[in-house]
Specification:
By secondary structure, this protein is α/β, with parallel strands linked by helices. It is built from 16 helices and 13 strands. The strands form two sheets. The protein has a seven-stranded mixed beta sheet with strand order 1-3-2-4-12-5-13, sandwiched between helices. Strands 6, 7, 8, 9, 10 and 11 form a six-stranded mixed beta sheet that branches. The protein is globular.
Length: about 350
C-alpha cells in the first residue's frame, strides 16, 4: 500500500505556537481541547479507492495542504487501494478501518455509487453503513478525441457509430461518463463499446495513442491533457469551461436528446456508526473542511495542480445525499446499459 503523511504534528504545532503566543493564547484558538485531543495526536487515515496521481489524488492533496489551518496539528495518512472499479478501497475502508472519525474515505461519488447500483456490496450495506458528508467539486463528464482524430465533432462520431462499433476508453464501466456515451448510442442508434482502462491517465493515453477511437472522462482530467486531446461533447446543461473544453456543445443542444447531467463529485465519507458515536469529532471535521474549501489558499493549490477552478463547488451532507439519490435513480434507469442485460 502506498502511504504518505501530510500535515503538521501536534508537537510541531505547539512548539511554534506556544513559544509565540503562550499556552493561554493557544488554548484560546478556535481549536478546543477536545478538538486537539481528537485530531492532533492521531493521524487521520484517508482511504482513496483509486491510484495515486489521479484526479482524486490531486484534489485530496490540495485539500489536505490547507486543512491543518482549520484543524491545527492534523496530519493525514493516505492509503491508495485501486482495483475492481473502486470496490477494493471501499471494502478496505468498511472492513478494516475503525469507525472512530479518525478514518475517512475520499472517493468519487458518481462511479462509486454506480458500483452498488450494478452490484450491491458483499460485506456492508449501502445506503446505510457509510455516508458522504461533504463534496469538494462537481466535474461534468465529456467525450474527447485525440488532437489529430478524423472526428471533428460529435456528429462525425455518431455517423460513424451507425456504420461500425466505436471503441470508447473509460476509466471504469460503472461511471457517469460511461452512462453518457451509452445513452448517446441508445438515443441515436450508434454502437459504442466501452473499454475500461483503470484510471484517468490510462484512459487519456488510450485515445492519444490510437488504442481506442474516443474516450469519456470527467472534464478535470481532460483539461490536464492540454492540446493532446480535443473535447467534442459535454454531459451537462452547458459547457462550464468554454474554450478549455474546446467550446464543445452540451449533449442535448447538440443531439436533441434528453440526457440528464452526468458528472462526478469527489467527496469525503465516514462510517455512519462513527458519525453517530462521535458527533463532536464529526462536527469538527465538517466545520473545518467547509472553511478549508472556502479558503483562497485551497483554490491556489487547485491552480497549482492545473485543475479547473470552475469545478470547485462545496456541498454539505444534504447536498451529497441529494446527489447520491439522483445517481442511484439515473443508474437504475440505465442499468441494462452498464450490465449488458
Amino acid at each position: 500500500m502506498n502511504r504518505f503523511i501530510w500535515g503538521a504534528n501536534r508537537r510541531t504545532f505547539l512548539k511554534g505556537s506556544a513559544a509565540a503566543l503562550g499556552a493561554g493564547a493557544v488554548s484560546g484558538l478556535p481549536f478546543s481541547g477536545a478538538f486537539g485531543a481528537a485530531f492532533s495526536d492521531h493521524p487521520l487515515a484517508v482511504v482513496v479507492p483509486t491510484a495515486e496521481g489521479g484526479g482524486a489524488d490531486r484534489n485530496l492533496r490540495a485539500v489536505t495542504t490547507v486543512w491543518p489551518k482549520y484543524l491545527p496539528g492534523a496530519a493525514f495518512e493516505m492509503g491508495y487501494f485501486p482495483g475492481a472499479s473502486g470496490r477494493v478501497g471501499y471494502e478496505v475502508y468498511m472492513g478494516k478501518n475503525a469507525p472512530d472519525c479518525y478514518s475517512l474515505l475520499f472517493g468519487n461519488m458518481g462511479p462509486e455509487v454506480l458500483n452498488w447500483v450494478v452490484q450491491a456490496p458483499d460485506s456492508f450495506k449501502f445506503p446505510g453503513d457509510y455516508q458522504y458528508f461533504a463534496h469538494v467539486d462537481i466535474d461534468p463528464s465529456v467525450v474527447y478525441v485525440a488532437a489529430d482524430s478524423p472526428f471533428r465533432n460529435i456528429d462525425d462520431i455518431v455517423a460513424e457509430a451507425k456504420k461500425r462499433t466505436i471503441s470508447v476508453a473509460t476509466s471504469r464501466i460503472a461511471h457517469p461518463a460511461s452512462l453518457g456515451i451509452l445513452a448517446v448510442g441508445e438515443a441515436t442508434g450508434g454502437k459504442f463499446n466501452l473499454i475500461p482502462m483503470s484510471g484517468g491517465k490510462k484512459t487519456l493515453a488510450a485515445v492519444v495513442t490510437g488504442e481506442t477511437d474516443i474516450g469519456v472522462l470527467p472534464s478535470g482530467s481532460v483539461v490536464t491533457a492540454g492540446d493532446s486531446v480535443r473535447t467534442v461533447l459535454v454531459f451537462d446543461k452547458t459547457n462550464p469551461l468554454g474554450e478549455r473544453l474546446n467550446n464543445a456543445p452540451a449533449v442535448n443542444d447538440a443531439l436533441g436528446t434528453k440526457i440528464p447531467p452526468l458528472f462526478s463529485a469527489r467527496a469525503f465519507a465516514l462510517h455512519t456508526a462513527a458519525m453517530d458515536k462521535y458527533p463532536d469529532r464529526y462536527q469538527a471535521l465538517v466545520s473545518s473542511l467547509e472553511k478549508t474549501v472556502a479558503d483562497q489558499a485551497y483554490r491556489d493549490e487547485i491552480v497549482k495542480a492545473k485543475a479547473p477552478l470552475e469545478n470547485i463547488r462545496y456541498g454539505d451532507g444534504a447536498a451529497c445525499q441529494e446527489y447520491v439519490d439522483g445517481i442511484i435513480e439515473i443508474g437504475n434507469r440505465f442499468k441494462s446499459l452498464l450490465t449488458g442485460n
